[in-house]
Structure formats: structure tokens, C-alpha cells
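Build the 3D complex.
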Amino acid sequence: MILNGTELSNRIRSDIKKEVESLREGGVVPGLAVVLVGNDPASRIYVNRKKKACEETGIRFFEHTFEEDTAEDKLVSTIEELNRDEKVNGILVQLPLPEGFNQEKLLDRIDPLKDVDGLHPFNTGKLLSGAPVFLPCTPAGIMELMEANGISVAGKECVVVGRSNIVGKPAAVLLLLKNGTVTVCHSRTRNLEEVCRRADILVVAIGKPEFVNGSFVKEGACVIDVGINRLGDGKLAGDVKFEEVSRIASAITPVPGGVGPMTIAMLLKNTVKAAKIQKGLA
Ligand code: NDP
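Done.
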């Protein structure tokens, strides 16, 4: 089974569009502000996709772009202004920031109730305690994609490869909250292949093109490939060798068209949720 994130995200986006229309009728217009620093081409592409997705669903989009040599204080004051701006319900700092910026310090300044990326310590704490407010978008997208395709987690061996704050760690917590038995692997894990072969659900988020081949995968496993790697010829590759692994797995996400579109759909969902919370509607 190919887990088609494009198709599911289109359905979610059309539901969001309807919800935004009805909110607008009641005088509430959800708004998302994105802060982009520097000229990283991949970040520019991601911001453009978010902008297009907002415009298509009726969410207002505010872009704040800064040069790479901008003083950090300027970014802090922008975030504080956005915290106060009633038209802005969600704030997202596009990551990664150029070298030299203190990412944690900036994310910590976002109002937790506008933190639609779910990366503020308030939201990571709520997630760990099992009562999340805003889930980080990529792990939330993974869970929705599995659920929509009837893949249950309870009681299963789940192996997450990668332990970033954005993907690996929160994905592991979400799988645990769904009663999976979770192992988290990283660059210091011994016998990675062997550990991965135990997985009923294998989530790979390492940023190494086609690193995971058939020998990492148990017959019938569900494989979630989070990686987005741009190859020399401009094509995209995941962290998993799709052709080889798809013959062994029972379900697999393609790249592109798997987890990526789900991430954007979850961002829109979080933005609408933020607007509703701030207007006392949720
Ligand atoms: P990071 O670089 O922040 O983290 C990578 C993780 O992978 C680290 O924990 C690292 O271990 C681990 N790792 C690296 N090499 C190996 C290895 N050889 N064996 C085992 N573990 C390894 O990456 P992100 O989590 O931000 O992103 C991962 C991938 O997902 C990237 O390709 C990124 O582009 C993509 N991505 C896709 C999104 C989507 O919407 N589909 C959204 C966000 C990211 P250690 O901690 O020990 O260094």
C-alpha cells in the first residue's frame, strides 16, 4: 500500500477551506505569519508552499523576510510584535535559521498559543504530558496518514530513526501516546539494521538519501520516510530506497507525495485551531 499524502492532504485542505469560510462568516479570519531569515533556496520553496496553501484555504498570510546579517534583537522584536498583532493567530519561524542565530531563544519568544509549529517548550511539555495543544506538524501528519489508512499503533514495535526536536523526538512521543512500544535510534545507535528489522512501524528521519534499504526492513512493516533530500540532478529522494523497500513493506510513503504534503496540511489545521482558541471558540 502506498500511503498517499498528497491525496489525504487535499481532502484535509478542502475541509479546512470550508471551516475557514464559516469562521469568516462569523468575523474570524485566521492568519499565519512566517519569519524567514536568509536566502536558503529550500526554505524559500517551503515558505512559498505555505503561502500558496494559506491563500487557497482563505487563511491570511503575512511574510516577514530578513537578510542573513539581521541583528537577532530585530527578530525578537518582530516576534513580539506578531505576538501582539490580533490579525496574526499563528507564528512560524522557518527553520533552519542561518548559522549564528540562537534558534531556541527565538522560538521561546513566540506566544505558546500562537506556536503553530508546536516547538515552544510549553507545547513540547504539553505533548510529553499527554495533553498536547499544538502538535509539531510533521509528526502530526505522520499519525494522520497512518490513521487514515487504517494502520494502528497500539502494541506494535515502533522504531524511529532520528531524534531531532522537529521530527524524531515528537514522532516517538506520539507513537508512545498511541500505545506503541517505541525505540529511538540515532547516529550512535549500534546495530541499526538489526534494531530497525524489529519494527512493525519504521519511521526514518535522518536526511541521508536512500540510506535505509531492504535489509533494514521486516517483511510486512509499515515504513514512513520523512527525508527530503535534493540530489545533484535536482530530483528529490527520501531516506529510504523506495523501490527495494516497497517490495518488502506492507505500507510505505513515497517521496515526494508522502509526509511532505501532510506537514503543510497540519500547519493549516494548527493555524485554524489557534484562531479558534484565541477567539474563545475552542
Ligand atoms: P536533523 O539533521 O535535525 O536530525 C537528523 C537525525 O538523524 C539526528 O538525530 C541524527 O542523529 C540522525 N542520524 C543522522 N545520520 C544517521 C545515521 N547514519 N544513522 C542513524 N541516525 C542518523 O534532521 P531533521 O529531523 O530536521 O530532518 C530529517 C529529514 O527529514 C531531512 O531530510 C529533512 O529534510 C526531512 N524533513 C522533512 C519534513 C517533511 O515535511 N517531510 C519536515 C522536516 C524535515 P544524532 O542526533 O546522533 O546526530
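The chain has a mean pLDDT of 97.
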